[in-house]
Amino acid sequence: MADTTAAQRRPSGTEAPAAAPLTNVRAQRVRSVAGLGRRSVRAREGLFLVEGPQAVREALAWRPDVVREVFADPAGRERHADILQAAAQAGVPVRDTSADVLRVMCDTNTPQGLLAVCRPVDVALADVLTGDGGEGEGRPRLLVVLTNVRDPGNAGTVIRGADAAGADAVLVGTDSVDVYNPKVVRSAVGSHFHLPIVLGLDVPALLERLRAEGIRTLAADGSGDAGLFETDLTRPHAWVMGNEAWGLPSQLLEACDEAVAVPLYGHAESLNLAMAATVCLYASARAQH
């Protein structure tokens, strides 16, 4: 007779024994998780890191289907029992670690006790344009396009701002930072799991596609002829946000339907990308809601 598995031999209603805590910083499992801080490893494994209790909580609340495993050090287990209970209810394994091991696995030197490994959550452009990419109904009315955005903190903050303003999706060009970079994920604080994100887009072709779909493209640019508060934001539109240092190249400015400037009432030379994007998105949200 063939030997039965451990699960088959276990009495009904009992749980599998918990895995031993990870305490060796040189263990293969620790190294494999830490490797997800590198883009090449994320692409190969199809996984990314979610650090900190707030982001892990949002992943479990909104997309438990993509959470592969949660790691908790002693402080995280003590402080965030509710999050670990949510993981258990979702059937997500929780692995105990030492504080040193969690520090090695995380991208930051001061982890907050919890780390999750998740599968990517990006969606197809067609799903966004047909209204199938998120919780809302119908075709999109407010989008944000990132092109040549290189700073992870800026990219994550724009994703978070788009989420807060009720945008329908964030569309990311091929020349922008990887949205699964740990710094982007930390800056977004869980917003990856709230709204659709589309990756790998050719931005000039995207602008043509949006226009064909009846979505106006508004370039956020300090030299724009139109002022933010004089622009019609009631119709469906996409904000196009460019590089932190040099903004949008002339060919993309010309390809957009309108270039819009955020007014500066004081003596500041300009707003940074994330601040400008948030102001524009909230102006749109106010006009549309």
From TrEMBL:
Positions of the UniProt region annotated as Disordered: 1-22
Gene Ontology biological process terms, A to Z: methylation; RNA processing
Domain RNA 2-O ribose methyltransferase substrate binding: from-to ranges: 49-124
Gene Ontology annotations for the cellular component aspect, listed alphabetically: cytoplasm
GO molecular function: RNA binding; RNA methyltransferase activity
Source species, domain of life: Bacteria
Keywords for the protein's UniProt record, in alphabetical order: Methyltransferase, Transferase
Pfam families: MRM3-like_sub_bind (PF22435), SpoU_methylase (PF00588)
Family: Belongs to the class IV-like SAM-binding methyltransferase superfamily. RNA methyltransferase TrmH family.
Alphabetical list of PANTHER family matching this protein: RRNA METHYLTRANSFERASE 3, RRNA METHYLTRANSFERASE 3, MITOCHONDRIAL
Name of the molecule in the record: Putative rRNA methyltransferase
